[in-house]
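Page 42, continued from yesterday. The earlier attempt failed because a stray header line got pasted into the input along with the sequence. Redoing it now with the clean sequence only.
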Amino acid sequence: MTDILDRDGAGFLIIGRAGMDLYADPPGTTIETATAFTAALGGSSANIAAGLCRQGMRAALVTCVSDDAVGRFCLAQLDAYGIDRRFVRAVGGEARNSLAVVETRLQDTQSVIYRNGAADFEMRQEDVRALPYAAFQALVTTGTVLATEPSRSAALSAVELAKAVGLPVVFDVDYRPYTWASAEEAERVYSHAATFCDIIVGNDEEFGFMAGDYDRGLPKARALAAETARIVVYKMGERGAVTITRDGEVRTGIFETGAIKPTGAGDAFMAGFLGGLAAGVPVAAAVERGSAAAAIVVSRVGCAPAMPTADELARFMASHTLSPIQQVTDAHPAP
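This time it went through. Structure tokens are written below.
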């Protein structure tokens, strides 16, 4: 199973959004009382790409940004992190980049997301048809890009084109209800997309959503591993994760850390996990690496700026231990 990403050094082709995050400053400040904000690169796909580049991997982003100052901010940030942006297109008109206004605090954390007329949803078929898929190690897509047209059809075409040249496809479920017309539509589209994917990563709520019943998330993850995907990672927050492959299941705990915010953990996990697989470590060790990256990012301000380097990950894992594995049942925990 360690050979699923066997094109050493080729890098990742990542589909999805890049945006601007505005963090209320200083840490602990609520949005409504803030008079200062710190700007950073945002958007789940751009965050994952930044995390991979911070580990010394290569990553290219496929998306659209607005043809304005905020879009140019995103392009400058992609350059700063070393993310390949050859496949990023600027769009004019009323399209605007995703904007998140967030807080760095643990209790009652607020985030305000602006996604009206999102530029990344303007990705079209012509943006994906001629991509050099065979030059990359894997295609990574997030579920958000599937929420509406024309980006939905473009992303699904990219997945099919990647599969046609034997490129592994990684699916970060990343379900954001506010971007979809209905839960029923999202369930249908996600289920279709999952049939093409070699690696699927999501949390217990997202798999429960895909199953149409929050109590059936783990059976859904197991079914995907049995029928389509080679690796499925079922994340459960503080209860750890269940990693399912054709060889069986592995359950892991989490790394305890001094968290200052809950945001960024999912993107960090994906970057650490994929970085581990690309480095050739076993799947279970790659999951532990993803958990370590998540623990580091929630203990720092920001998401992309908080992503650890490979050396930081190694030092953290050498000085911290995983929490004991908790009992996992098929039932989704009560809210």
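Notes: The two ends are 35 Å apart (CA to CA).
Reminder to self: strip header lines before submitting.
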